[in-house]
Amino acid sequence: xxxxxxxxxxxxxxREGEVVYTKGDLAQQMYVILNGKVRLYTGDKPxxxxxxxxxKGEFFGEGSLLEAISRAHTxxxxxxxxxxxxxxxxxxRMIRQNPEVSVKMMQRLAQRNRELAIRxxxxxxxxxxxxxxxxxxxxxxxxxxxxxxxxxxINSHGALVGRFDPATGLYPDIDLTDEDPNLSISRxxxxxxxxxxxxxxxxxxxxxxxxxxxxxxxxxxDARETMPGDRVGFGMVVMFFEKQS
Length: 245
Prior knowledge:
Tumour Suppressor Smad4; six-stranded antiparallel β-sheet; 34% strand
């Protein structure tokens, strides 16, 4: 089961520069990043072209859970990194207990497909060409903490705002755990949607401590447009919405 003891037993630690797996290896498990960063190189050596850089809360190697295939990349820790290893059997139990896990994976796979399409278009049909200089798409906007001043980039459509969920070992897209010592934010608190350059906040079902835009409390499912400079509250945590022009 995906409880705290499972997470402790499944943790793996890699030092900076250490290879997690090599392209062509038999794939048997996926990984979730607890801390640190991982880069996925396109070749069988940790050098040259690379496909993605991943950080806290993101996952990789998920193809092994869907079919018996060899690794398509070489995964390397860019700094001291802590991972959770998840086998196919464990993953199936996790999604039965918490369907949000499978939803998050589908969202991430859809995002990766969009990024691949952008790379193919930008490189004339070669998705592996000059990947180091092609940044992942970003919406160029952030939530900024009123207390700490820390900036939390909004890098995906439907970005989930919340706290780390120890039951699954997964993090929301915008993890406000460090901003919330009073635990006023739900693990799945709200989502930020981007449509044609406009941003909307939608509260998730079951939230108890509320979501606020300019002091107005949202109703669950109510999509409220957010403008640059707006004060946004998740439970007791207050942020400003910042949008790049």
